[in-house]
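Reopening this ticket.

The earlier resolution said the output was attached, but the attachment link was broken on my side. Pasting everything inline this time so it's all in one place.
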Amino acid sequence: MTTTWLVTGGAGFIGSHVVRALLADGDGVEQNRVVVFDDLSTGFGDRLPEGVPLEIGTVRDRAALDRVFSAHPIGGVIHIAAKKQVGESVERPAWYYEQNVEGLRVLLEATLAAGVRRFVFSSSAAVYGSPDVEIVTEDTPCLPQSPYGETKLVGEWLIRAMAREYGLSYASLRYFNVAGAGTPELADVGAFNLIPMVFERIDAGEAPRIFGDDYPTLDGTCIRDYIHVNDIASAHVAAARRLREDDHAALTLNIGRGEGVSVLEIIDRVRVVTGVGLPPAVVARRPGDGARCVASADRIKAELGWTAEYGLDDMIASAWAGWRLRHDSATLRG
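Inline output:
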């Protein structure tokens, strides 16, 4: 039996890893095919394996979505396309709601109209805000602190409501801090997260910055749960597999390792793994940064049999290889 998955945002950093993991999954009986739908605002068509159809468009365009569902035998949707910069969401809240919430609404309606009843949603640990707990479970109260986090939580609510009314089988996956690369060519090209931000400072010959070292943690810096993008991809495959088997799935799951790493520890490991970099400089705190946010990964293991496989050094080394490839290519072009 073959299932064709429509992956929105499949040409992006996370999406391209999910596409490859889906195609690699199969036992000769159950197989996956993939159709990618992407507006290429942050994605790149050359990230896709040969033979994967790329439909260009936005999820807010109902006519474009209807054409895609008519042209391909879609059996499930994995919705990754979204705007995801916290700071930008603070500056442009209405636009974030339009992109992330209205886009999801249009996509859900097109999905249901096409008779598709399997839906995997890329959510985020940003729905929790800054929880005052050692370990964040799926039952930890959701108190998002940015419009971005709000759009992800509203998205979860919308999916849940549509599922109750129309019999949608779904999994909402709350990513923690994504890092690493499956191959250098698929690496993240933005410097919006900690590890690539450190790489950017290395390239500039400047000290990495620590935004505050007076938090109530062992070394005074913020603690986060980092997860390799290959593990994010395998979690999507596990969720897709569950939805193929269970027409009544209603899952909300953390994707993390359950291990906290401080900002200072990350910077120290980057310097060891890459062999370069200056000692960090401490600057003022950023608004909205909580002291600690570490996932409980118990529920996803119980529901999907999934656990993370990659460690912190894997994330740093693979991300660095991708960073160097991009930097060297840009230098040659220059």
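Reporter confirms the inline version is readable. The chain has two domains: 2-179+226-255, 184-224+258-333. DSSP finds ten helices and 14 strands in the chain.
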